[in-house]
Amino acid sequence: MISPEKVKRIIRIIWITTAVGFLGVITSVAMVKNNTFGWFGGLPSLDQLERPNPNLSSELISADGVTLGKYFRENRTPVSYDELSPELINTLLVTEDIRFKNHSGIDLRGLLRAAATLGVQGGGSTLTMQLAENLYKTNTDNRGGIYRIPKVGAVITKIKEWIISIQLERSYTKEEILAMYLNTIEFGSNSYGIKVAAKTFFNKLPSELNYQESAVLVGVLNAPTAYSPVLNPDRSTNKRTEVLYNVYKYDLINRATYDSLKVLPLGLNYQVDNQNEGLAPYFRTVAGNFLREWSKENGYDLYEDGLKIYTTIDSRMQRYAEEAMREHMSRLQGIFEAHLGNRAPWINEDGTELKGFLQAAIKRTETYKRLISEYGKNSDSVEFYLRKKKSMRVFSWSGEIDTIMSSYDSLAYYKRFLHAGFMAMEPSTGHIKAWVGGIDHKYFKYDHVKQGKRQTGSTFKPFLYTSVINNGYSPCQMVTDVINVYPMPAGQDPPEWKPGNSDGPPSGEAMTLRRALATSVNTISAFAVMNFTSPKEVIRIAKKLGIESPLEEVPSIALGSGGDVSLFEMVGAYATFANKGVHTVPFFISRIEDKNGNIIQVFPTDRSDAINEETAYIMLHMLKGTAEEPGGTALGLSRELRAKHDIGAKTGTTQNGSDGWFMGVTKDLSAGAWAGGDDRSIHFRVWSMGQGARTAMPIWEKFMLKVYADSTLGYKGGTFDRPNKPLGIELDCSKYLNQSDADSIPKEINVKDIMFP
After folding, report:
1. Which of the four pLDDT bands, split at 50, 70 and 90, describes residue 577?
2. Which domain-ending residue is among 356, 380, 415?
3. What span, in angstroms and rounded, lies between the C-alpha atoms of 226 and 231?
4. Is residue 64 part of a domain?
5. Cα separation of 392 and 379, whole Å?
6. Quick one: which of 688, 674, 679 has its CA closest to 416?
7. b/e for 244-262, b at 16 or more Cβ within 10 A?
8. Residue-range definition of the domain harbouring residue 720
9. Maximum C-alpha span of the chain
10. Is 394 helix (H, G, I), strand (E, B) or coil?
């Protein structure tokens, strides 16, 4: 029997111990909060608590509201509480913090349970405390000197979490805290935050998650790798069952529902955000390059500041463009392979194989540069490793292929592929609606819309004829298709220019300028540049229309050989014709907002008067000739398109068929396509097979058919708008020319004879 005095003594000891402990806790908390002597490291300020700054990915958003891609170090996109499904909220609370709605940041009952069970039944951390750690890295950031003492650092970290949790509970509602928690959690597979995780694993929004999906995601919270449904599906399934049992235990579902849910498959729809996959990968890369520079100049971090970048791209039109590219280029590649047989595609002017091609090409590869850096330029090891066979996965139009190749084998394999680029824009707004830079971004990074520049062939001729029309000539002006010899300035080699037609000898026929453009007659284009205008004037017009690339002041510019030009420039220039002579610079970013939705910058439309409205309309009339005149190079276009819409178009094919082009404008859109080999020496051995009408036009045609079939886009098409003022030139040549009696028509007709009085 314990004496009363002893009982009193024990009680006194307990009280003293409790008091000392309580005072110790109070003192410790106060010291940590005030960072006494700088021992403990600082705490976030009140401003930081009210405006936490987790790393947020920036989103690239289409004009129709679809996320095209993200730029991130941590792939994270925040959501609000209202965007969370009730099933997800319930699953999280019963698993991580059942008394979340009742505590003030610290769950004393949970702490006592953790202490009594030595953490077996949980560590006593509330969602608010976990949020504090996620947001402010209490265990790693702002560590004071006392952290060096073993075990003490963990205690200090826990005290910091207590302090921050209480402050968070004072600053935010429970709903806000719960949403912030789910926004900061890592789920594995480069998924940070519930919105990204829901999309990555189930291709759903957080509002759409059911109990079994929520259980999978809640299950990975504490061990994203160990319980990954992708890496460890069996462990993930078992963990899901545990979580679902909690849902059942707290009467959120009945036993029958629990039993049915736990046996379901995981039901993943797994897709990791990848710069090579999804819509518009080439465009995303180009936009990223622009945005990095913009962010640097304007004091933002593209990868952490959660910017909302709104683009002009329409996701539906982008999808149609990519489909058109894939449908045509896969077929064209098959034709090219059948045409080549076992022969190399890289050939000389005379059709023989270009010797030393692969040896020269491999020196431009990263593999070669790496080997040279490691072994030295003259080392035998470089050649050894270039010819060593190894396992690799390669691109094919039928899907990726696992194979064994050397670096030389791989290079030869990839050089056989034909490439393409496509872009579409609205002439009036300058908005780029679709951008396809190549056939597959994973394997071919080079962008053929803006980065790539090639000779344009006959697609440059409309700039020549614009200059001719500007000088007062009519589309009905007659010129004879004959070869003329033009002496060049003294000292120039060759001393004379004698251009012929690409499809054979001249016909000797007199024809209108409209028909000459429609049938792409080189001799008449040459005559026009030497007699109706000048190379200098043609360049001036091209620059006004939007061609920024350097151009040589040479007569052959009339045939498109005056310099390399990008598809981006060509589409913008052709748009000027459809926009009544006003050049609108193509652009792809409309505005940028910060993470809170505040507009940072709006990108205005850049317009300038290039040519007068009448000249623009006459040029549209000229370009329509390719699908109307006998022998027009665009007569192969879909009858459906030609019947319903005015189409101004031009094909282009460079020497040997190295580059195939097609440019086309309707009332709504200006669009263009290029197709060709990676190197100019890679092309069809027969020029006619490499014509732009065969290699590039089908991409444009397929795209336009898809666009005009989609009524949701709002494009009506139809005929080009005539100028409000009467034209000064009659466009119907039959009214004064007897086209059936061409031989009686003089080589040239004075434009004054066909002008209205």
Report:
1. very high
2. 415
3. 8
4. no
5. 25
6. 679
7. bebbbeeebbeeeebeebb
8. 419-752
9. 141
10. strand
Distance separating alpha carbons of residues 385 and 552, to the nearest angstrom:
43
Q: In this structure, what token pair is assigned to residue 434?
A: 């679709």
Amino acid at 110: G
Based on the fold, state whether residues 362 and 485 are members of the same structural domain.
Answer: no
- Say if residue 381 is in the same domain as residue 471: no
Q: What phi, psi does 273 have (nearest 5°)?
A: -55, 125
Q: Return the SS3 of 648.
A: strand
Which position has the token pair 């509970």? Answer: 169
Mean local confidence (pLDDT), 271-299:
88
The owner of tokens 């050939």 is 347
The string of DSSP codes covering 203-245 is S--GGG--HHHHHHHHHTTT-TTTT-TTT-HHHHHHHHHHHHH
For 546, the enclosing helix (H) or strand (E) is none
Residue type, 290: F
> Above 50 in pLDDT, residue 194?
yes
Q: Are residues 601 and 712 in the same domain?
A: yes
Give the C-alpha separation, 126 to 186, whole Å.
17
On whether both 531 and 607 belong to a single domain, the answer is: yes
Spatial separation of the C-alpha atoms in residues 191 and 664, rounded to whole Å: 42
Residue with tokens 């949980």: 122
Same structural domain, 480 and 531 = yes
Please tell me what DSSP assigns to residue 722: P
| Phi-psi map region of 380: left, alpha, beta (phi>0 left; psi -120 to 50 alpha) | alpha
Nearest-angstrom CA–CA distance, 183 and 54:
9
Q: How many domains does the chain have?
A: 2
Residues 564 and 596 in one domain: yes
Is residue 219 a part of any domain in this protein? no
- The answer to whether 691 and 653 are in contact (CB under 8 A) is yes
pLDDT tier, 409 (very low <50, low <70, confident <90, very high otherwise): very high
> Is residue 201 classed exposed, middle or buried when 0-12, 13-18 and 19+ CB atoms within 10 A define those classes?
buried
CB 156 within 8 A of CB 32: yes
- Kindly give the interhelix angle for 366-375 and 380-387, rounded to the nearest 10 degrees: 140
- Model pTM? 0.78
